[in-house]
Amino acid sequence: MGTIVLVRHGESLWNREQRFTGWTDVELTPLGVKQASHAGKAIADAGLRFDAVVTSSLRRASDSQGHILAMTPMPEQLRCIVDWRLNERHYGALTGMGRAEAEIIYGTATVHHWRRGYTSRPPPMNAAQARRLVGKLSAPSRKEIPFIPRTESLQDTFHRVAPCWRDTIAPLLRVGRCVLVTAHGNSLRMLIAAIHGTDPAAFCAMDVPNATPLVYRLDSKLRIRNALELPTGADGRTSLIL
């Protein structure tokens, strides 16, 4: 039985300001650090011990992973994978814009359609902006990215997340490994769709809160046996979601 634990990063600076972040490499807030540590404690309390960890190339995910691992038992050898395909959905020209500002400029219904529609893309940023954005990522991450996106739909996001699931994560689960994945709201929505093997459009509006561990147990054929959300507060309850 393989186990995968999915955790969205803790609160970032732009989460707090309600700005579209996308591929901008912003840091965690102090609350975000605390949230990630609480997630790590919840994971440790559940008795989970990781064989491998996977994160996006953005620091809010990798830093969250570090805070989680600081609270959990560490094996002698831990496989660590950084994969740009788990990066947040690229928000194009909305990047850096506050949600309220975007709704004033484009209309509330249009912005909602861009955020939660499966095939809809926000307006693209220009090529120079896109190059600058990617240029601020770490050098190893830049080398792995085969193209520079200027905007993405959730469908585009699924088309890069699904191969990460198939080629990198699923083989570990088939042989019974326990894997931690720290990523982002939209990339995790699409990863969850890949895990379920169903229509990704059905997951576009799924709630993925910051730093709340979601645990799936799968058999060797990657069939879901159970899924639960771990508590990170003081009530000690778990929520069985499947």
From TrEMBL:
Substrate binds at residues 8-15, 21-22, 60, 88-91, 115-116, 185-186. It catalyses: (2R)-2-phosphoglycerate = (2R)-3-phosphoglycerate. GO terms for biological process: gluconeogenesis; glycolytic process. Its EC number is 5.4.2.11. GO terms for molecular function: phosphoglycerate mutase activity. It holds the Pfam family His_Phos_1. InterPro entries: His_Pase_superF_clade-1, His_PPase_superfam, PG/BPGM_mutase_AS, Phosphogly_mut1. The active site is at residues 9, 88. Gene3D superfamilies: Phosphoglycerate mutase-like. Keywords: Gluconeogenesis, Glycolysis, Isomerase. PROSITE patterns: PG_MUTASE (PS00175). Pathway: Carbohydrate degradation; glycolysis; pyruvate from D-glyceraldehyde 3-phosphate: step 3/5. The record marks 184 as: Transition state stabilizer. Belongs to the phosphoglycerate mutase family. BPG-dependent PGAM subfamily. Homodimer. HAMAP family: PGAM_GpmA. Catalyzes the interconversion of 2-phosphoglycerate and 3-phosphoglycerate. This is 2,3-bisphosphoglycerate-dependent phosphoglycerate mutase. The lineage of its organism: Bacteria, Pseudomonadati, Pseudomonadota, Betaproteobacteria, Burkholderiales.
